[in-house]
Batch of 2 targets.
Target 1
Amino acid sequence: MPPRIRIIAILICIFLVAYVFELVRRKHLNEEYSLGWLVTGSLMLILSISEDLLIWVSDLVGATLFTSTLFFSGLVFLMIICLHFSIRISALTNQVRMLTQHLGILDYEKKTLESVVAQHSLEKNPAALEKL
Amino acid sequence: MSTLYREKHSNALLAEPLAEESTPSTVITPSLIGFSNTLIVIPAYNEEKNIGRVLEGIRRCAPEIPVLVVNDGSRDATPRISREHGAKVISLPFNSGYGVALQTGFIFAVKNGYTTVVQMDADGQHDPRYIVDMLQEIQNENLDVVIGSRFLENNRYKTTFFKRAGMFIFGNLASLFCGQRVSDPTSGFQALKGKAIQFVAGEYYPPDYPDADFIIMLHRCGFKTREIPVTMHPSPDNKSMHTGHKTIYYVFKMFLSIIVTLLRQKPKG
């Protein structure tokens, strides 16, 4: 692999891992969601540093260019991360749906109870009616 | 029985203007006795122009049955008008879609012990005269679900070519997998009883567009369903849930949903 692309790949991976750590430290990213990025960044970093490993993976997938192996690996990791996000978004959508439904019902019950209580207190204290 | 009943009350058209003095609550009640635990659920989104007429129609045709309007984040006067017409109103905090609003009504019904639920649209397409027919059918024939079909008896309902093609394909697919004719898979005019209500309130209900996939699901769970002929009026605003790019998504979703419904283990009904 040409040294220039190798250095760029290593720098990008180091930056990615460091940035994800910083995001977690600042609580801008949950640990749960940092996992995929850290694993991706670390594995890409190992692939970029270790030429033997890159050659072995290239032979395994049948790639003629080492840079293609790097891009291919990055693409696969990103696909896994995207799929994970889709699953999480689906779960969150279902949770929001359920919350929305129960919030609507609870709000209706609250208003009904409030009107019953108001009516009851008016019956018990007709003077309040005059004030109104 | 149903036809006779309809002829008898043919003057009670929904589309007619409803004068206050001419709305005795005596128009129709051939046998609403036995439906004390019944609820009518209407999902509504920005329907201020139609919801009043719909509720008036229901009040004339089925005065004893409580009505729940699920306001799906409307930005107009839909909830106020619904309350003024004596309906219970549940307001969702934002627009969540037809299926979500409808399911909210069913969750409410389960929580409050209703044993029969009639679902209908807020745009005036569904004629409330058929509510009693549907309830009688579900009670007398010991069914779980009764679906009002606009294509069973007459075929005068006008719709676009693509809509008709979709209904034809998905109706035939549903008929094939259910082993009985499903002429109107998109009908939102339905009556459900007992465990079918709990099923709709549960996790297997498709929350976006309950359609042919839902009918197949019901059949696979062992619920007894039947269609009865009803008349549907064209939507006054000519609104449809499936327009533009949504049509493509609808077709894709329906095919996928039917396939996974058939592949999925039978949910417990």
Target 2
Amino acid sequence: MEPIIQLRNLEKSVEAGPNRFFLLRRVNLDIQPAEFVTIMGPSGAGKSTLLSIIGMLDGAWTGEYYFNTEPVHRLNVKKRNELHKANIGFVFQSYHLIDNLTVFENLEVPLSYKNVPHKERVSRVCDALDRFNIVGKKDLFPNQLSGGQQQLVGVARAVIMNPKLILADEPTGNLHSAQGDEIMQLFKRLNDAGTTIIQVTHSERNASYGHRIIQLKDGWVVGETATADVGANAAQPG
Amino acid sequence: MGSIWQDIRYSGRMLWKQRLATLVSILAFAVGIGVNTAMFSLAEAFLLHPAPFENANRVVALVDSRPHQNIDMNAIAPATYFDWRKEVRSFDRLGAYAWDETSLTGNGPPQRIQAFRISANLFEMLGVQPQLGRGFLSEEEQPGKDQEIILGHALWEQHYASDEHILGKNIKVDGKSFTVVGVMAKGFDFPLPAEAWIPLAIDTKERERRDSRWLWVLGRLKPRVSFSEASAEMQAIAQREAQAYPENNKGWELRSMTLAQSMTGDITREYTLLLMGAVAFVLLIACADVANVQFARMAGRTNEFAVRTAIGGSRSRIMRQLLMESLLLAGCGAAVGLLMAQWEIQMILSHMPPDVAKFIAGWKTIGLDPNAFLFTLAIVVLCAILSGMAPSLFASRANLADSLKESGRGSTSSRARGRLRGALVVAEISLALVLLVGAGLLVKNFQGLLNVNESYSPRTLLTMNVGLSDTRYPKDSTRLAFHEQVLERLSRLPGVESAAFVTHVPYSEGGGVGTYVFSIEGRPPAERGELRNAIIETVSPNYFGLMKIALLGGRLLTDADGANAPPVAVISESLARRYFPGENPLGAHIKVGGMDSPRPWMTIVGVVKDVHYSWINKENIPTIYGPFRQAPPYYTTILLRAADDPSQLISAARAQIAAVDPELPLYNIKPMNRIITESIIGIAYVAAMMAVLGGIALVLASVGVFGVMSYSVSERVHEIGVRMSLGAQTSDIVRMVLRRGMLLTIIGLAIGLPIAFALARALSSVLFGVAPADPFSFIGLPLLLAGVAALASYLPARRAARVDPLAALRCE
């Protein structure tokens, strides 16, 4: 099977006065469909940068990036946005729900960006509310929810378009451990159902939910391990 | 459609959430849109539909003009009109009309009415028909067969109680019997301000006159002939006329203009355009204000836009959402603005004296009509784009990765945004300064016009007009007797300090001044184009004393200058300076008309100071004063000097004149200061509107400065905290914030001043009492603007100085 993501010699740098500062160096990476990959590394290693590039939010890099064999590095902004819109869902550490929209409306926004007809939008949002058990919260605004509930909505928003790939940047970073576990189990179930997941985390416990860990340091990929080798103490997904 | 509705809903919610910013934006738009809609309604009435007739767009007005004397529209000589009728090919007919003030007599007290003598084809040319009866027949243009009259609707209603059987009845006009043949429809008052029409019958002798211009000529274009083709043909004919009759056509130029143009007039058009420009400035300033508010609001939402992008929102879609917010703001502003426009229009309409309004083409049609609503709709879209485009462009291209980070600041885009917001404030200051200077100049012009006439204390002067008809006062002796008796009776009235006659008091003809050709004995006009024109006033000797006109040389007119004495004249200083440069004019001989005129030569016996005659003419106009006893006039203005309020004299004066001639109507009975204010009311309106617009611009610009500085302070709270923790004093922080506010203000003033100076140069040539480098406008007003901007910067600066460094640093 072809990898869903192939990165070849991917590099990202920024100008720093007369010098060039590299955020990512010669990253080569293959991720298979339905894989659950964790990216780890110290602060400033380039984890979030790599996630932004994979999520096609950042187009200023060099190298090759194939998404489902589609050469992203050759696509113009419009095509890249379309590819992103059709295939990728994001989950953020601080949820990034839109404060002024209700839970229902937050879930509806990505559907409206894909010009999904109104009736279908309503039906899909209702399904998602039901599936994530947040029907009772649909008319609440984000600031009326707990952190865990907000992240639940964040995940629901990410999956409502049935993306092939979910990118999660420290998804449990702002949650206490019980809420974190709940979210991680949710990811696990989604992954089991066939969604590819890439998460950035500092938590080995969260990493243990995945299949593989990519270690980054100073922009370089410095190691790659299967999760089985990591923390036998990590909690098993339920 | 669903997604647009979704955008509207979200936008409404966002605006509601930030109510203060929304309120400021809506008010700024309301003011900007309100003045634009109101001004559009005026411009539409004056410029687009001043001639509401079926054929108006095919009718061309043919007028004479004298550019170097600021006469942009003048009537045509009868002989020229009849020449044109034979020669022109571009028009299927030419028609004409002439002013003819007459009196309705024989049925109660005499009533002065504004009648016009019109050619039989005039109504048909315009595409109008009488509501009752018929128009004139061509045979009624024959002298002796012209005893028909058509009544205006208002006159028919008020004077004849809407008598349905009026047709065929005889009424007395100036003592002669006229048959009513028609009544015009309600509202028809062309040529303004007509109350009745009689046939234009011109006798053979008058038909051949080229030295007297009193016919206003209109032509209707033939089908498939364009205005420019007809205009070109008329120019060619006019050139031939000028070559054939050089004496009568020196300095005159033919102008072809559309009927609408001729009805509006150049000055109204120019001032309307000036005000349109001013309101456009206000709208731009309002848009810049709202754009600044939008920048501030959107800067607080960068994270939201990044999230929207991350979950699939395209840039255009996000921009659409943001523009929708601007559109909603502009829409709400327009709703309030329409109410303001309605109020403004009512204010404008209610303050115009009816005596002036009746002369303004289109005045009756001013109001918020469907076109005004369409205009407002277009303005709403324009406002949304102008105020929303730049902020939405910036917001939608925020650095996503940075924005989504926990404390990403996106410093590059924030700096660019700051620069753009600064540029907007600079533009606001520049525009506001130009408006303020324009307003300042116009207000000074208005004040100048009021002050220039203070020399003769117009508040204690009463004026009234009488017109003696040639049927009842055919002889000089009867007219002289009338004037002598009236003068004697009025002078004896209690409360009257003195009474005098003059043909026209200054400012009595609106902006216009009637001048006539005169000749100087022994000096035939040498070269072509030389013009000898002056106001000719027939006065009683005490006129100069009553008007406090100082004698500069020679003597004034006296009671001894009677019919049997040698003809004499007094001239104004400007006439002496222009036509007798470096020599003594006393003793020289002048006469009214050309060298071959039958009028007598008059000896110049005195030179007096000039009187300012019209707000249009900045320079004084040469004037010749002749004694009424040597040429008893048909038309005259009576002047009464009272000790205080002159209106108390009206009824007594009426009684005295009625005692001399009970059939003679008195009209235009007004204090002199009212004549002046009515004459310059157009300027007063323009000055007042410009002053209001300048004030609005000042407030809006200061709101802009305040908004930008407030936002700048809130963005720099952390920096201010750091500075204070490093030892900065309150005064250092205040100075730091003020410096930026004042820098923007100074740049704005530096850009605005040259533009304002160019405007002042253009305006000073036409405005009275205004120098191009007026110190009030160029020092006082910029200082005022700078002061207000300093205050607008000081308030945020004071807030900055109160920042608690510990709290500011903890926040970060």
